[in-house]
Amino acid sequence: MCLEIYLPELYDDNILVIDKSLNFFYGKNGTGKSTLTNLIAKNGDQNDLAVLTFQGFESVLGENDLLNAVVIGEHNKKIELQIKNKQNKKNELKSELTEIEKNFDVTFEGSTAYELKLHDLNISIGEKKKNRFLTDLARKITMIDNGLLVENARSYNRNNLISDIPNAKRLSESELEKYSNIINAKVSSKLKAIDIELFKSPEEILQRVNGLLVKYVKEKPMISVESELEESFLKSGLQLHSIGARCKFCGNIIDGKRYSDIKTYFDADEVKLIDVEVEKLKAKINQDIVELENINLNFDDIQKSFKENFEHVKKQLMLEVRKAINGYQIFLNALDKKRPYEATECIELEESISFKSYVDNLNDYIVKNNNLLENLDENQKIAKENLRKHYIAIGLEEQEYKAIQDEIDKNQIKKSVLESRLTPLYNQAIEIKKQITDIESAITDLISQTLSTERLVVNINKKLDGLVDFTLVLQTNTTNNLEYYEIKNKAGEIRDISKLSTGEKNLIAFLYFIELLNSVEYRAKKKIIVFDDPMNSNDDTVQYFIMAELSRIIKLVKKDTNDDIFILLTHNIFFYSGLVYDLINDRSSGNAYNLNNFFRLLKFDGRVSIQKVTKKGDDFTNTYDSLWHELALLYYLDKPRMMLNPIRRIIESFVIFNGIEGFYKDDGEAKRLFNVNSHGSVECEVDLVGKDKEYIINKMKTLFVNNNYGCHFNKKWKYWKEHCDTSSLAH
């Protein structure tokens, strides 16, 4: 936490930065300490920090002459007002909540919740009708094809049907037929693929046939043959007759020369070669025709789902086979007419012949057929599901179901509209309830923050015991319900508050302020704690007690994690020295001047200079001589009890510097006075009866003399006793 205090013209600087947890200001009266305190308080308020300032009795308590008492009720009265305001706000919110919650009352006719309930009822009635319809539809599905569409006709019910609805859709006629065929498919052997090699095409030998047709014997024969018929007649006659025999056709004697010429016509080598080739080719053609005619395309076992398409393609293929056979017949006719001594015109097939596309198509169906058989169970399961969902889709298209669903949907829409109205109201109700809870929590918090005046008076009286001869007694004025404290002495008598000294009033205020710091309201808050000249009592016991309490607060702030800021402003040099001594001499925490702020307030020509002390040598409280100066001041003020602390620190510094051991020797009383009893609040209890300031100084002198340092003591004491600056003691 860091404070930036903008300073008025009274100060030389424009801004004061307080960036440490512990801050100490020393300045004489009139150096602007109170002004600075007010500026710090204002800065804290602007930054939403809790600022607690102690500026004496008047800053905390008030005197009531009529009651003859001190009043400590302002803090509680402020909190009570906050509680009342929050309670009023809570009541407003509860009224608002009541109006909102009427919308959620189902018993209130006309409320949103009441209308919502009616639509819920209509939806419930519609759902019952819908369930009855779906139950009946599920039963009908189980009866289609004798239950073939479901796995188990006995167990298939409405719930199963509902799970099928999201994917229910009508099938096309072709899909319907396809899935029906799959369902009815029977287990059979796989079909063999059709061998394309079985299909012989005349196109394959067309070139060979034409080559033979144009081939002829170029040598002229001895006889002239006019026609194919004549040539056939001669060939037959040659086989049936011999020379000199009578012709079986005409009855004439066979002439030898004629017979020889005819035989030569047919027996020529080239002629024989042509005849042989013709016969071979005709045999090949006849063989191809036989093979084509013997091709078996009977696939009766093909599944019904493929049969129609398969048969259609098969017909196309058989047409191609017929075209091939016709082509072969043309070849045979041409070869039969072939004459060896003349070329025959080449043949041209009028239609092309293609087997492959049809065979491939048929083989595709065979593969599909075999795949179907291979995954028949899975395929039939898929087919059943698709057919079942087809008939479900048809059922859901019925007018009765549509009317039921439309009624449900209509009520659902109205319900959604009403719910959309309730949602912001519901959220608003939640927010209001949260606000009420927060307010109740805040009220509880405020109640816990109220200072328990009963506990407060007990705590203050515990600390007053041994310091003063009176206690506080809690009283209540019934007229204005104001709590106040009467002052009662040890004899039980009520003391006149006008007789209380400034120091006594200051002590009461100081103790109240300490209790305020310990209250729940401020304990966990980030806060600025300011003490502006808290020491104004002439009672050294009380002063020592106040120093001990402030030292305790300093230690708490030093180790606190709340980023609290502690600020002390004082004009009292020995008070300042006593508070910061342990802090600047604590070697375990590092350099005190880097970890804390020490300021000097100096006034010149009506303006105040704020000087920061940054090293030990510049701080008068850190020098050995300053301890002697403090001792001389306390001696001057006749404060024997408070003299113990600087004496302890003088002895500690002297012993450490000179490396002396056993400084107290056997002087137990001196050790008890200067060593043990000057470290805390126990100084308040040390017995100094009969021991005035001279006794204490002499006891200190004896220690130095016994350690052979009497001259050192005499020199220091003489100097500071004569040069003691008492100007800082004015108040």
Fold blueprint:
Elements: E1 3-6, E2 15-18, E3 22-27, H1 33-46, E4 50-54, H2 57-60, E5 62-64, E6 69-71, H3 74-101, H4 112-143, H5 158-164, H6 173-183, H7 206-213, H8 228-240, H9 256-267, H10 269-293, H11 304-336, H12 356-374, H13 376-396, H14 399-449, H15 453-464, E7 470-477, E8 482-489, H16 502-517, H17 520-523, E9 527-532, H18 540-559, E10 565-570, H19 573-584, H20 592-595, E11 597-604, E12 607-612, H21 624-636, H22 640-658, H23 668-676, H24 693-706, H25 710-722
Parallel strand pairs: 3-10, 3-11, 4-9, 9-10
Antiparallel strand pairs: 1-2, 5-6, 6-8, 7-8, 11-12
Helix pairs in contact: 3-14, 4-5, 4-14, 6-13, 10-11, 11-12, 15-16, 21-22, 21-25, 22-24, 24-25
Describe the overall structure.
With 731 residues, the protein is an alpha/beta fold. Among the domains are: 1-49 and 527-613, P-loop containing nucleotide triphosphate hydrolases (Rossmann fold, 3-Layer(aba) Sandwich); 59-72 and 451-504 and 515-525, no CATH class; 116-187 and 376-413, no CATH class; 220-267, no CATH class; 623-731, no CATH class. It is built from 25 helices and twelve strands. It has helices at 33-46, 57-60, 74-101, 112-143, 158-164, 173-183, 206-213, 228-240, 256-267, 269-293, 304-336, 356-374, 376-396, 399-449, 453-464, 502-517, 520-523, 540-559, 573-584, 592-595, 624-636, 640-658, 668-676, 693-706, 710-722; strands at 3-6, 15-18, 22-27, 50-54, 62-64, 69-71, 470-477, 482-489, 527-532, 565-570, 597-604, 607-612. The strands form three sheets. It has a six-stranded mixed β-sheet, with helices on both faces. A four-stranded antiparallel β-sheet has the order 5-6-8-7. A hairpin with an 8-residue loop joins strand 1 and strand 2 (15-18). Helix 6 packs across helix 13, helix 11 runs antiparallel to helix 12 and helix 24 (693-706) runs antiparallel to helix 25 (710-722). The longest helix is centred in the middle third of the chain and has 51 residues, at 399-449. 25% of the residues are buried.
